[in-house]
Write a structure and sequence with these properties.
Blueprint: E1 4-14, E2 17-26, E3 29-34, E4 39-52, E5 54-59, H1 72-81, E6 84-89, H2 100-110, E7 117-123, H3 130-136, E8 139-143, H4 155-162, E9 171-175, H5 190-196, H6 199-210, E10 217-220, H7 226-231, E11 236-239, H8 241-245, H9 265-276, E12 282-283, H10 292-295, H11 312-321, H12 327-341, E13 357-360, E14 366-367, E15 386-387, E16 392-395, E17 398-402, E18 405-406
Parallel strand pairs: 1-4, 5-6, 6-7, 7-8, 8-9, 9-10, 10-11, 11-12
Antiparallel strand pairs: 1-2, 2-3, 4-13, 13-16, 14-15, 16-17, 17-18
This protein binds N-carbamoyl-L-aspartate and zinc ion (2 copies).
Length: 416
């Protein structure tokens, strides 16, 4: 038998059981799993947890147009340091990605900046040419309401667009907030921001979308209210760590301003409970960095959005370590389900899947510090929250993080 390129040994969740196994890797793919395997290179992480690399289907890497906040190099570096090996980037860059030449330009600009694998969304607008866009885009984004640097489209236009048969089998990620339910009040705090864009706006938006005819795979981004989950039953859904861990009672001021808004502490707790009870499909960060200077502006002028691509998985692992949630649930919501939604051969430690692996010492619980993170924005809403960051990260069998340092950059590929 020929030797494998690489064998990595460590603790892997197989079914419901932790087992110490060897992962055999060739040409970037997992080719065999076994108790004992030989390889040209053998890495023994027997004391460590090996997880599939995380997949974050909702990030804003800000490149091009807003590179004072983030760029594709820093954003994907932050992902890698957080054990996330695939990200999907939203189209509200400048220019907004609505046609194929904008999408091609963006791919050119990204060039070799990506440190993890990536896919780009295109924005769904009344005149977007779905037939050509779908060849290059990982999916489509639908903005129903005004939000940072995004132009919403009317429900009438949405109805027409979703009926396009070219959308068959394409993922459409919906920012579900119905502007008719917004209240024109002065926004000076997390509470008033929540009042101005109440949960009822989300619930009605979800309901309206589910009544439209489409052959697309509809996915509801960053849901905040349990009623929205009921309305979205049978559809793909996502929640964010910030809606799960933070509320209008958090002491964040404008740093906590985000769309949809943080809700009150009761609603936050019920979202967390829904996650623990496995009622949530996907956890995505909605990594939306803004500079500290912007966030220091008066509340009503500060932009909405907060960073989170690097902390998403490490915070989940801290919950696993404190036995609040199971590793199985974390892997499902952060790896398998995102991969399944987009039919990727990633997100699973099994034969035939990409060898994207994140390796954690589960005894190394640390406190998150904004200054140690890698996003260009330089801050986090989760300062001092518990987290376990990976020591080593592999992207298609290549080590990109070693002992907590980025050792190879620019190896990320477009997954489309
Ligand atoms: C996002 C941004 O800043 O790009 N802001 C946010 O509050 N989530 C846009 C968005 O996803 O709505
Ligand atoms: Zn959004
Ligand atoms: Zn977003």
């Amino acid at each position: 038998m020929t030797e494998l390129d690489l064998v990595i040994k460590g603790r892997v969740l197989i079914g419901n059981e932790m087992q110490t196994i060897c992962i055999g890797i060739e040409d970037g793919k997992i080719t065999v799993l076994g108790k004992d395997l030989d390889g040209d290179k053998f890495l023994d992480y027997s004391k460590y947890l090996i997880m599939p690399g995380g997949i974050d289907i909702h990030t804003h890497m800000r490149d091009p147009g807003f590179t004072d906040k983030e760029d594709f190099h820093t954003g994907t570096m932050a992902a890698a340091f957080g054990g996330t090996t695939t990200i999907m980037d939203m189209p509200n860059t400048r220019p907004m990605v609505t046609n194929v030449s904008q999408l091609k330009d963006k791919l050119d600009i990204i060039g070799k900046k990506a440190n993890v694998d990536y896919g780009l969304y295109a924005s769904l607008t009344p005149d977007s040419d779905i037939k050509v866009l779908k060849e290059l885009a990982v999916g489509f984004k639908l903005f129903m309401a005004e939000t940072t640097s995004a132009v919403p489209i009317s429900e009438e236009d949405i109805r027409n667009k979703l009926a396009d048969p070219e959308l068959e089998g394409q993922v459409v990620s919906v920012h579900a907030e119905s502007p008719e339910r917004f209240r024109d009040i002065e926004v000076t705090s997390l509470d008033t921001h929540d009042d101005s864009r109440p949960a009822s706006a989300e619930i009605i938006a979800v309901e309206n979308i589910t009544q439209m005819k489409t052959s697309a795979i509809m996915h509801f981004a960053h849901l905040t209210d349990l009623m929205s989950f009921e309305k979205a039953f049978g559809y793909s859904n996502e929640i964010t760590p910030h809606h799960m861990f933070l509320s209008t009672s958090s002491d964040l001021g404008a740093r906590g301003r985000v769309n949809p808004p943080l809700r009150n502490i009761r609603e936050q707790a019920s979202l967390f409970t829904a996650f623990v009870k496995a009622q949530v499909g996907i956890i995505a960060s909605d990594h939306a960095p803004h500079t500290m200077d912007e966030k220091k502006m008066p509340f009503g002028e500060a932009p909405s959005g907060l960073p989170g691509v690097e902390t998403r998985l490490p915070m989940m692992l801290a919950l696993v370590q404190s036995e609040q949630v199971s590793l199985r649930l974390v892997q499902a919501t952060c790896c398998h389900n995102p991969a399944r939604l987009f039919s990727l051969s990633k997100g699973q430690i099994d034969v035939g899947f990409d060898a994207d692996l994140s390796i954690f010492d589960m005894t190394k619980n640390t406190k998150i510090k904004g200054e140690r993170l890698h996003s260009k924005c330089g801050w986090t809403p989760f300062e001092d929250y518990n987290a376990i960051f990976p020591d080593h990260v592999f992207l298609r069998g290549r080590k990109i993080i070693s002992d907590g340092k980025l050792i190879e950059s620019g190896t990320g590929r477009n997954i489309v």
